[in-house]
Design a protein that fits this description.
about 450 residues; alpha/beta; FAD/NAD(P)-binding domain; 8-stranded mixed β-sheet; 24 strands; about 25% strand; globular; flavoprotein; oxidoreductase; sarcosine oxidase activity
């Protein structure tokens, strides 16, 4: 299986990673008659649900609101599944208010155009900060928090991410087709004479072999294949605050507020917990590791890799991000933002970012029998009902037409300083996690 030109059905598939891309791919393989005789194995370094995986959290935004029309179309299909037959008990359709005050308004305008072109969603355009405050039930009037223009898509919502992942895992297990293994993958098994991948080597030096290996390890994928200039790990801050039942009842019916100019957002609370976070350029964590494709331990590369609370149980979000989340809360709901009400939990969620925000779903251009499915870029989870089917189509050489030129392996590597992004990221640029930690982390 050298490329996507004329792939054969593999007798065995090994999926590295049980997050949104990996688990959804396993589910799709199980239900595809072409793979009825294929042995399917999923390996992950942590017991499910992976405690520091990006797909395991209290909530994730579910929206078709994209500046790129192909993602709007695919997300619309996924959202209908969330409403009808996919983990419906974990989906809450309370709307999404997407706003901006700066250059990110271009993204908002394009997104509005695309959802209107689909024509199925209920849209309310908001031309000022006061209109945004009204639609979102905000107490505060500070447009730094609310944004100055935007719109509400009342057909968008949010999902309990961990609940949905557990639901999907149970659906996969019911099919009794997948062997799940908890083990740390250290290296691909690469025959450099033939440029063929035959599986992986685990931390205990044992091997898992398969006809086709699919890397779907999210932000950790770059530790197993050289993705410099293609994909990098960025850490995004999340802060949580307990609230009362009365406060939850007041806030829960209102839409999520996502201010693209700052990257800050607030998802309606559940289980008496309020979440504030930043969808921004993120923290980098430069790490020097042995080159994942080399057998020479002295051949090293430096890349950004996740550093989570599993690596350091005392880890908390750096002070600058806690300050930003606190200021955001003060601007939109000042009654909740008092010194006597600290964030009781913080964490860093790690994205696998690509230079244009497109997914990387492709055969490797050099190594046969190796397929890569990563690059969620902070927006992969909402596609959970359909992304596995799309990945399997790509495995079989049938990349959806609208994603040709977007999901393939890039023809060249581009320095990170030249990455354009998708236009949706706000907030600080160029932060290094260790540097921000050194500046102080605290209780805010």
């Amino acid at each position: 299986m050298a490329s996507s030109a004329s792939p054969e059905i593999p007798s065995s598939v090994l999926i590295v990673g049980s997050g949104a891309f990996g688990l959804s791919t396993a589910w799709a393989l199980c239900r595809d008659p072409q793979f009825k005789n294929t042995a399917i194995t999923v390996v992950d370094r942590q017991t499910f649900p992976t405690p520091d995986g990006s797909s395991i959290d209290t909530s994730r935004i579910i929206r078709p609101d994209y500046a790129a029309a192909p993602y709007t179309k695919l997300a619309t299909i996924a959202q209908e599944r969330w409403r009808t037959d996919f983990a419906t008990e974990h989906y809450h359709q309370v709307g999404l208010c997407i706003t901006a005050s700066g250059i990110e308004q271009t993204y908002v305008s394009s997104s509005l155009h695309n959802v209107r072109a689909i024509g199925t969603d209920k849209i309310e355009v908001l031309d000022s900060g006061p209109e945004i405050a009204r639609a979102c039930g905000l107490e505060g009037k500070d447009e730094w928090g609310s944004g100055s223009t935007g719109y509400v898509n009342w057909s968008s919502g949010w999902a309990d991410a961990e609940g949905a992942m557990i639901w999907l895992r149970e659906e996969v297990e019911k099919l009794n087709r997948v062997k799940f293994i908890v083990a740390s993958v250290k290296k691909l098994l690469i025959n450099h004479t033939t440029n063929t991948v035959s599986g992986v080597r685990l931390a205990d030096s044992t091997h898992l072999t398969a006809d086709l290996t699919i890397l779907a390890a999210g932000a950790w994928t770059a530790s197993l294949i050289d993705l410099r200039g293609i994909c990098k790990a960025t850490g995004q801050p999340i802060c949580y605050m307990p609230i009362s039942a009365a406060e939850e009842a007041r806030l829960a019916p209102h839409p999520t507020l996502l201010n693209l100019s700052t990257g800050l957002f607030m998802i309606p609370p559940s289980n008496r917990l309020l979440k504030l976070a930043r969808h921004g350029h993120g923290y980098l964590n430069p790490t020097t590791i042995p080159h994942p494709e080399s057998d020479d331990p002295n051949n090293t590369i430096t890349i950004s890799l996740p550093h989570t609370h599993i690596d350091n149980p005392a880890q908390s979000v750096p002070r600058e991000a806690q300050t930003q989340c606190r200021a955001f809360l003060t601007a939109i709901h000042p009654s909740l933002s008092t010194p006597s009400r600290p964030f009781t939990k913080t964490k860093i969620c790690w994205y696998a970012d690509t230079r244009d925000g497109d997914f990387l779903i492709s055969y490797h251009p050099v190594y046969k029998n190796l397929f890569v499915a990563t690059g969620g870029s902070g927006h992969g989870f909402k596609f959970l009902p359909v992304i596995g089917e799309a990945i399997v189509r790509c495995v079989m050489g049938r990349t959806p037409e609208e994603f040709r030129g977007r999901w393939e392996w890039p023809s060249e590597r581009v320095g990170e300083e030249l990455w354009r992004g998708d236009g949706s990221r706000g907030g600080p640029v160029g932060m290094v996690l260790s540097e921000e930690v050194a500046r102080g982390a605290g209780r805010l």
